[in-house]
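Data availability (excerpt). The following record was deposited with the supplementary files.
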Amino acid sequence: MSLLRIFLAIVLVLPGLAVAQQPVLELREAWVRALPPGQPTTAAYLTLVNNSTQAVEVTGASAEGAGRVEVHTSREVDGLVRMEQLATLKVEAGEQLALAPGGTHLMLFELERMPSPGETVQLCVALRDAQPVCTPADVRKSADEGGHHHH
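Predicted structure:
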């Protein structure tokens, strides 16, 4: 009988462990813009997917090879497009948020060197009430090079 109890305990506990290990926020289609060598900054783009039942708050980010990463958004003010730093980003439960050229994005500052097309850069997003979530990001010159189609 003790083997049966152990088996039942394992069967009941394992599904809960699998759910607990899934990231609170899923990062999809991450990429970093390749610019000419010598540039001190570039941008990164990705889609944040919240598959949980509660809102998730992004409080910052980091990237391999960057001294500092900030969340920025582009806004039109008096006919000019200006970048504005955001302290946090909120992704509602069950929602997704695309960080894309011309809108909200990550700015990578103090680069050790400009990454080259074909390389990957590890991007991490810091969350208010959860562990950071990381993903490899392809380095390319434009969004069109990724082969992803947005509808």
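Summary of structural features: The chain is about 15% helix and 50% strand.
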